[in-house]
TrEMBL record:
GO terms for molecular function: D-xylose 1-dehydrogenase (NADP+) activity; nucleotide binding. SUPFAM superfamilies: Glyceraldehyde-3-phosphate dehydrogenase-like, C-terminal domain, NAD(P)-binding Rossmann-fold domains. Residues 150-284 form the GFO/IDH/MocA-like oxidoreductase domain. Keywords: Oxidoreductase. Pfam families: GFO_IDH_MocA, GFO_IDH_MocA_C3. Residues 9-137 form the Gfo/Idh/MocA-like oxidoreductase N-terminal domain. This is D-xylose 1-dehydrogenase (NADP(+), D-xylono-1,5-lactone-forming). Belongs to the Gfo/Idh/MocA family. It catalyses: D-xylose + NADP(+) = D-xylono-1,5-lactone + NADPH + H(+). The keyword Mitochondrion does not apply.
Length: 378
C-alpha cells in the first residue's frame, strides 16, 4: 500500500450552516502552511436545501470559485462523479439519513459530531459503510489537533505513571432564554441540549487519556452514570453530569483503574482549566476551549521521593497554526482514502460507538427521550 503518494481529495460540502463554513474555510488553507505535503483538498460541490444558499455560501466562503458546483439538494452532491468524499454539517438528527444517502452513492463520509442521534443509527450506518466499502469517520476534530497528539504522547510515555482521575467540562452560554425554541440547541426534534452538542468534548478527552491508555487494553468502561438537569423551556438537558469508571478485569485484560468525571452545560461559560488529568506522578491541565485548546501544562510530582508529593517540575506548551484546527481531521480522511482504509486508526468506529453507547445510557438515566420519529433506527 503506497503511503508516500500525494492525493488531492475532492470534497462535497453538505449544508451551509455555521460549522460547514468553518470546515470549508479551513480546508481551503494551504496544507503546506501546517507542514502537510502528502495530501491536499479541493472543494468540488456544495449542497444545500436551496441552491441560492449554496451559491451564497460559495460566494462568501470560497471567493465565488466558479469551479465549485452549487446544488439545491444534498443528493446532487452524492451523485456528482467529481466528488470523492462528503463532509456533513447538518444538525445531529439529520446526520443519519444524510450519511446513509452519501454511503449508498459510494461517497466517503466525514460526519459532524455527535455522529448520530443514538448508537443504533450508528451501527446501521457502519454496516452500510462496510457494505459499500466507503471510509466513514465522525468529525472529532480535537483528536487530530497537534496539542491532543502531544498530550497523548506525554500521557503514555511513562513518567507520569497511569492516569487515575480525569475532570473535563465543556460549557457554553447559549443565552437560552432569548433564542428561539426552534434553535437546534433547544429543540428536542434536532437532538437539542448540552449532552449531544457539548458532551462529545469532555468525552473525547476521557477517550484519549483513559480508553486509549495502553493499560486499558481497549476495554469498555465498567460503569457509566448520568444525571441531567432539564430546561423548562423545551425539556432538553441544560446541564448534564456523567461519569465513567475503568476497572481492571481479567477478562478484558485491562489493568487501568481510573475514573472520568465529565460535565457540560448550555447556560454557563467554560471553566478554566477545561480538562485536568491526574496521574500517579503528576497532572496535566488543559486550557479552554477544550474542543480546540492551544495550551496545556504538565506538573510532575516527586511521589515516592523524600519531598513527598511536591511538584518536581512543570512543562508548558502552546500551539499555533494557520487556520482554526478543522483541517487536521480532513488531512486524516485524505490519508485514509489514499491508503484504502475504511476507518481511521486514531478515531475509529469503536470510539464513535463508545460515545453513542455512553450517550444512550446517560440519556436513559437522565430521562431524556427524543420525540417520536427523531431516532431513525432504535
Ligand atoms: N465540530 C465543531 O466544532 C462543531 C461546532 C458546532 C456544531 N457542530 C455540529 O455541527 C452540526 C451543525 O451545527 P451548526 O451550528 O453548524 O448548525 P446550523 O448553523 O444550524 O447549520 C445546520 C445546517 O444544516 C442544514 N439543515 C438540514 N436539515 C436541517 C434542519 N432540519 N434544520 C436546520 N438545518 C438543517 C442547513 O443547511 P442548508 O439549509 O444549507 O441545507 C443548516 O444551515 C451539529 O451536529 C453540531 O453538533 C460541530
Amino acid at each position: 500500500m503506497a503511503t508516500s503518494k500525494t492525493i488531492t481529495l475532492r470534497w462535497g460540502i453538505i449544508s451551509t450552516g455555521w460549522i460547514a463554513s468553518c470546515f470549508i474555510k479551513d480546508i481551503l488553507v494551504d496544507p503546506k502552511s501546517r507542514n502537510v505535503h502528502d495530501v491536499a483538498h479541493k472543494v468540488m460541490a456544495v449542497g444545500s436545501r436551496t441552491v441560492e444558499r449554496a451559491k451564497e455560501f460559495i460566494d462568501k466562503f470560497a471567493n465565488g470559485d466558479q469551479s465549485i458546483a452549487p446544488y439545491g439538494t444534498y443528493q446532487e452532491v452524492f451523485d456528482d462523479k467529481n466528488v470523492d468524499a462528503v463532509y456533513i454539517g447538518t444538525p445531529h438528527t439529520v446526520h443519519y439519513a444524510t450519511a446513509l444517502n452519501a454511503i449508498k452513492a459510494g461517497k466517503h463520509v466525514l460526519c459532524e459530531k455527535p455522529v448520530t442521534s443514538n448508537a443504533a443509527e450508528l451501527r446501521s450506518l457502519l454496516a452500510a459503510a462496510k457494505e459499500h466499502k466507503v471510509f466513514f469517520m465522525e468529525a472529532m476534530w480535537t483528536r487530530f489537533q497537534p496539542l491532543a497528539l502531544e498530550v497523548k504522547r506525554i500521557a503514555e510515555e511513562g513518567s507520569l505513571g497511569k492516569p487515575v482521575v480525569l475532570h473535563a467540562d465543556l460549557s457554553g452560554d447559549f443565552d437560552v432564554e432569548n433564542i428561539p425554541k426552534t434553535h437546534r440547541i433547544l429543540d428536542p426534534n434536532l437532538g437539542g441540549g448540552a449532552l449531544l452538542d457539548l458532551g462529545p468534548y469532555p468525552l473525547v478527552w476521557a477517550i484519549i487519556a483513559l480508553y486509549e491508555n495502553p493499560a486499558n487494553n481497549k476495554a469498555q468502561p465498567t460503569t457509566i452514570t448520568g444525571n441531567m438537569l432539564k430546561t423548562p423551556l423545551t425539556g432538553v438537558d441544560s446541564s448534564t453530569a456523567f461519569t465513567l469508571s475503568f476497572s481492571p478485569t481479567e477478562s478484558s485484560g485491562s489493568s487501568l483503574a481510573a475514573q472520568a468525571i465529565l460535565s457540560c452545560s448550555i447556560t454557563l461559560d467554560a471553566p478554566k482549566p477545561g480538562v485536568t488529568i491526574r496521574f500517579e506522578r503528576g497532572t496535566i491541565t488543559i486550557d479552554p476551549p477544550i474542543y480546540c485548546p492551544k495550551s496545556f501544562k504538565v506538573s510532575y510530582l516527586n511521589k515516592g521521593n523524600k519531598s513527598g508529593g511536591a511538584t518536581q517540575g512543570t512543562l508548558e506548551r502552546t500551539f499555533e497554526y494557520v487556520g482554526k484546527g478543522w483541517h487536521f481531521q480532513a488531512d486524516e480522511v485524505a490519508r485514509c482514502v489514499r491508503d484504502g482504509k475504511l476507518e481511521s486508526d486514531s478515531w475509529g468506529h469503536d470510539k464513535s460507538l463508545l460515545e453513542m453507547d455512553i450517550f444512550d445510557e446517560v440519556r436513559k438515566q437522565g430521562g431524556y427521550i427524543f420525540p417520536p420519529g427523531v431516532e431513525k433506527v432504535v
